[in-house]
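Most newcomers find our protein records easier to grasp once they have seen one. Read left to right, the backbone structure tokens trace the chain's path through space. Once this layout is familiar, the rest of the handout is easier to follow. The record below serves as our worked example for the rest of this section:


***
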Amino acid sequence: MAFGWIEEQARARRDAGLVRRLSPRPAESPLLDLASNDYLGLARHPEVTEGAARAARTWGGGATGSRLVTGTTALHAELERELAAFCGFEAALVFSSGYAANLAAVTALGPHGSLVVSDAGNHASLIDGCRLARGEVQVVGHADPQAVRKALATHGGAAIVVSDTVFSVDGDRAPLAELAEACRERGAGLVVDDAHGLGVLGEGGRGSAHAAGLAGAPDVVVTATLSKSLGSQGGVVLGPARVIDHLVNAARTFIFDTALAPAAAGAALAALRLLAREPERAARARAVAGELYTRLTSAGLEAVRPDAAVVSVRAPSPEQAVRWAADCRTAGLAVGCFRPPSVPDGVSRLRLTARADLSGAQIAHAVGVIGETRP
């Protein structure tokens, strides 16, 4: 029977408590949201939604084609210029998603004959980029510059080191300065995904590379998403102009994908300008994360100290994590639930988003609900 193996895998998922289901949300929800990645609270900001609407009215509902055919509008070019200037890089290239941006960067910069060194805790999009890259891939220990040095020493040719800047599971930061030093010792490039750093870390939210003094470096490439702090959709690669030009000519997820919809580009540009005008939003997101962590640990919960805006709370098992998240929802609180295979260490968690627009009362309420519903 065609696809007969699917039922066997479905049974295995059910037995392991790892079944996933879609849960459409309404436009207006009574839940307190600590599950989304809307770190700065901009997804519904009037300036951002008007930016999306204005772009759609001007350019239409879709981009109409790939970037190299009809999909590049003046709006896309404007967004790329302002992203590069804000983050401190020479050039930028916008993609239809952060996932597509990561696939593009890793595959185009890890060709046949090269070495790709990947952190064991990297996001799935970086992992898939490594799988698709034609270069040799070595996976090294999490946030371990010395392991990176050892891997680079095994290869005499072109190489890149690939890492998240802020890891999405526990919210811990990569040692970017040390990774850059290890790369420079061997003439390797550093490619980092700043999905959870842009808008939260660095001066006024300019990102992790800016915070580490690496923005604009000729051997550093940064990818990011427009769907988290900027409250929109899409992805971007930032780096030297010659790298961006190479991606235009070699990255398959750029060449063969329909361009980012104008509405998403307009929303991201409006959010970027708002962040530039209100840089205190980045510091507020970090402060909320710190307060969540302090309150959670004071309540006796096992939480990981956040380096950005992700706060992770350990759960006893996948089944109990699912029940815990469901009980929180019943009590009016939306939280994320991470289980294998989404977590590299196999430990299930609740994952909380520290949004800049959360009040002290909302933080206290959220911690109270999590504590009252713990397994």
The first strand starts at residue 32 and ends at 34. The chain has 15 helices and twelve strands. The mean pLDDT is 96.
